[in-house]
Amino acid sequence: MAERFRELKLLSLFALTLFFLLAYRQALTNLGVAKSPAGVPHLQNLTWLGRWKMFTELRNHHTDFVAEAQAPEGTWVTIDLAKRYVLHWDEGPGYQRDDFYADPGRLAELATDLCRDGGSTSIRFTLYTWDKTRGQVAQPRTNEKTTDLGRFTCH
Predict the structure, then answer these.
(1) What is the pTM of this model?
(2) Which positions ≥6 away from 77 have C-beta within 8 Å?
């Protein structure tokens, strides 16, 4: 029974391997590090399933959420949020998520917690975004945009 359809199984395995190799080559082409395989003009449409990423990063930009405290003399000092809120999971800091910094209530709670240290007259939050540079390890801050997320007075 195991020998039945052996040739068909081998041919299917070969075809699947060829498909994933073409998808890999097309992924390299999309990154700009390889040329598209010759003779396959519509490879982009044919290999979408083989290039699919399970954990796709949907954003085309990087974000940096910055909290600053105003000292009594008026100078602004950056708060090291990563040191203050140590990670217990590998998923990254919660304050870097867009559902966190888009919620004024959560920002107010964070500001209240940061004010508890004393010595600060107010807290402000700023979001920096910049374009991703595809296919490179270095990610320079090109086209950086600054968004003021709010200022909270410490009581």
Answers:
(1) 0.60
(2) 68, 69, 70, 71
